[in-house]
Write a structure and sequence with these properties.
3 helices, about 120 residues, about 0% strand, mainly alpha, single chain
Length: about 120
Amino acid sequence: MKGETQPPRNANSHLEQDICIHIFTVSSAMVGVCLTVIGLIRVVITLGTADTLADDLLAADALLFLVSCLLSYWALRSRGLRRMHRLEKIADGIFIVAMIGMVVVCALITYTISVPAPR
């Protein structure tokens, strides 16, 4: 692309690449965590002890983590410094939103399981 050259290998560039690597590894692990918890919630729902919206929210959360993972991978593969910065910021923002979503889902699970549903 025009105007984009090979980024210089300095300490700042190395730090940004480290951030991308961390987002990539953690968000891919969080996709696995979301899928595992969805499976556990489905077992609880099948046993009839609780009914919750948490598994649907976790599926959306897993997709956010996947998008963050793919964007950070794209940033790592990017040759242009500006494109890498832009992709990294987007991946970071989506990652933060997904983490907040994970906390909300955890609160929802805790509330649903600790407060029995009226019969």
